Amino acid sequence: MPQTTIYVAPRFPGTLGTTPLAVATVDLSRLFGRSAALAGVSVNVEVGRTVALLGPNGAGKTTLLRLCATAIRPSFGSLAIDGIDALRHPELIRERVAYLSHATGHYDDLTASENLRFAATMFGWGAAEGAAVCDEALAGVGLDAVAGDRAGTFSAGMRKRLALARMLVARPSLVLLDEPHAALDDEGMRLVDRLLGQWHEAGVTVLVASHQAERIAGAADGSIRLDGGLVVEVSGAGVTLAAPATSLAPQVATSRVDR
Amino acid sequence: MSELRRAATVAVAIARKDALSELRGRQAAGSTIFFAALVLLLFGFALGPDSRRLADAAPGLLWLAIVFGGLLTVSRLHQLEADDGALEQLALYPVDRRAVYAGKALAGAAAMLVLGALLLPVVAILYAVPIGAAWLPLVAALLLGAIGFAAVGTAYAGLTVKLRAREVMLPLLMLPILAPLLLAGVRATAAALGGDPLGELASWLQLLVAFDVIMLVVGAGTYGFLLED
User: Fold this and answer.
1) Which residues of A touch B89 (CB under 8 A)?
2) How many whole angstroms separate alpha carbon A99 and alpha carbon A167?
3) CA of B168 to nearest chain A CA: how many angstroms apart?
4) End-to-end CA separation in angstroms for chain A
5) Which of B216, B218, B214, B191 is nearest to B202 (CA)?
């Protein structure tokens, strides 16, 4: 799979000689109209760590994940993934990030296999190796028996499994999961737990937003708790608060929150 | 793999995916063709039984039916992406956005060409227009018209797909831009059917080529921004 290499190892200014950072944000903020979904978030996540994003509905977890996935752009602040500026080089970020959102992004009239092979082509796999990777991924999420069925006939849980298979095909260095256990049965939840373990062993960084704090706690090295778009607590290993570039950023953002 | 080859692979994969969805969702594609044929039939009723009048109006009515059917076609091709967040997923793949545009436009042009090709015999039968000798320039005009329509439609469908009022906004935005394409298409078709006594067919086809090139360049350049949230 082709990947543009523009550095030897993940780095971030000011961290020479320390653990490389997979995610580094400074004053990261996102406004939607007059509401601040994220207000001046400055955190560092080390490479290879699994970090839980915790907080109530509307805390900003999904917004943080979507910013890291380059699905949306920050209103202000900076974001670096593996040392690459996400604002300047979103195309390089997309080569190394896989994002599981609430919407699964499948095409109903294509079969599970066709959906996955389309994704494999988009990720840069050739036809033969892509087919092998897709078959392996479908087997990995337990959908190999229904590979020839159209995605439109799948249940919500099966659609999520297919989305997880797409993440396996992507072979990312940063995995972003938004409520990965939602809509899954017990077996599906164990599948997510198993994948979290595999990614951790492989040195892949994982940010996972979940309401199931106790379920995620076992797999996560550390956690970031958000509330009202602000970081209210950072705990555990692999994740630290970073110094904001300006102390004004959170106030500027929160002053615009409609309450 | 060179960048160009990679872009071509991506574009073909997107067009193939859209074509598969269109073929398997036959109900929607079939109803669009039926709608466009119905438009031709109703125009026929509106103009009355005068066969000379119908034959004179045939080129304009054919292109209006293509435009109406085409609006539904490009809207539907982007609706595929709007369902279940597929458009966001498409935007997150590590691919050149121009290749995504090319793929969507390719699928749109193919669908438009099929629509035009199916409407031609309908026009020939309803309006008693002989197309046998003029088939080659007619196909050329339809092909160039399909490319231009898809070039504009893909960009505007990308712009309006997230809007609630997309069904209204798409024609409102597209129709003014399509005026040169409609004019050139109608005149080229009329010239082809009339045996091109004034030798103007080539000029109208050249205008269609110029329209296509400009719209493809503008569409490819702007489509990436339209995918941004």
Assistant:
1) 103, 105
2) 7
3) 24
4) 47
5) B191
- Name the residue in chain A with its Cα closest to that of B6: A124
Q: Does B4 touch chain A (CB under 8 A)?
A: no
Retrieve residue B148's tokens.
Answer: 């231009």
CA A150/CA A158 separation, integer angstroms: 11
> Residue A111 has what DSSP assignment?
B
Question: What's at A70, amino acid-wise?
Answer: T
Check B13 against A118: CB less than 8 A apart: yes
**For B158-170, b where at least 16 C-beta lie within 10 A, e where not — what string?**
bbbbeeeebeeeb
**A189, containing H or E segment:** helix A186-201
User: Domains in chain A and their CATH numbers?
Assistant: 1-96+172-259 (3.40.50.300), 102-155 (no CATH)
Residue of A30, A109, A158, A164 for testing the chain B interface, max B β-carbons within 10 Å: A109
Q: pLDDT tens for chain A, 259 residues: list them.
A: 444 433 334 444 444 456 678 999 999 999 988 888 999 899 999 999 999 999 999 899 999 999 999 999 999 899 999 999 999 999 999 999 999 998 999 999 999 999 999 999 999 999 899 999 999 999 999 999 999 999 999 999 999 999 999 999 999 999 999 999 888 899 999 999 999 999 999 999 999 998 777 888 888 899 999 999 999 988 888 888 887 666 555 554 454 444 3
Q: What is the ipTM of this complex?
A: 0.88
Alpha-carbon distance of A169 to A135, in angstroms, equals 10
**Residue to substitute from B6, B14, B17, interface A, most A β-carbons within 10 A:** B17
Residue with tokens 């974001």: A79
